[in-house]
Amino acid sequence: MTSNDRRLPLTRRGLLGASTAVATAAIAGGAARPANAAPTGSRAAARRWTGAAGSSGVRLRWLGNNAWEITFGTTTILIDPWLTRFKTGTYTPEGIRDDTPLTVDPAKIDPHVSRANLILVCHGHYDHMSDVPYIAARTGATVLGTESHHNMLRALGTPPSQFCTVRGGEYLQYDGYTVEVFQSLHSMTGPSKQVPYPGTRPGTLPPRPQTVADLVEGETLAYQITVGERFRILVLSTANFVERELAGLRPDVAIVAAGGGTVHDYVGRLMRTLDYPTWVLPSHWDDFDYPLDQPAIDWGGLQPLRDAVKTASPNTKFVKLDHLQTFTP
Ligand SMILES: [Zn+2]
């Protein structure tokens, strides 16, 4: 950790481990197998997509932070859609202001989000979930998340009829695609390696969340979307994961959050566990005090992630998108 992190253990920079990710990169290498090496684990039959660029029929658009739009055919899936990006000071030396009110600005959302079949909530923090009630109402989408996520969303006005409550282990069949749900972990920060705004909200309905501190983690999930039984996208929302949960997965695309300096060999273990994905799309690397309609401003996590992926998995293509850009594998 940097001295900055010691002084301000709950700043987002410390949370995401920007500085120590460099050290992670240095120790991550050496064990990479070729991308086409024999797979391991329980899903060994999964074959990698080998089609020409642009032929998968899948489009991935980055909406900033960990917000992604994944489209194929007539289906649209949104991941942690947060486009309002109200100022919190998260990446400033002073750190986040806990009393920052939750606000939603349709003028920042509507130009970019008009339809969705599913919204996948990876965890409950403000920068992942605070626009979900508005977007769920606007699109009518079904919202996947834990009981805690749903209780907080219900307290913000989302009707229970739109919830699909999951806990990890689900393998859900939809029209032409599947969604697998995995238990995951949040990144940790500070000398005691703490999850920011920790906790859960099971059982009875909590009071209506008012500030960023009211949207607690509520457990963290990872998702794998498989399109047409042939193209796999794994989504991780924050720099940590449960190795045993993901063992044997062979995603074509892995959406990977920057950071992870407090997690042992974060990127190296992840690349090995996933059997070296064809593509890594970096996520959660932009300072969200700045708006989505301007180029992304790196808080410091992008290059360490790029370096760590290159060291651990040299054949993986690292595809950095800017705000609102689309990747068509
Ligand atoms: Zn978070």
TrEMBL record:
Record's InterPro entries? Metallo-B-lactamas, RibonucZ/Hydroxyglut_hydro, TAT_signal, UPF0173_UPF0282_UlaG_hydrolase
Signal sequence, start to end:
1-37
Q: Which UniProt keywords apply?
A: Signal
Domain Metallo-beta-lactamase span(s) in chain numbering:
64-284
**Which segments does the entry list as coiled coil?**
none
Is Phosphoprotein found in the keyword set? no
* PROSITE patterns according to UniProt: TAT
Q: Which Pfam families match?
A: Lactamase_B_3 (PF13483)
**Is Membrane given among the entry's keywords?**
no
Please report the name of this protein according to its UniProt entry: MBL fold metallo-hydrolase
Where does this protein come from, organism-wise? Answer: Plantactinospora solaniradicis
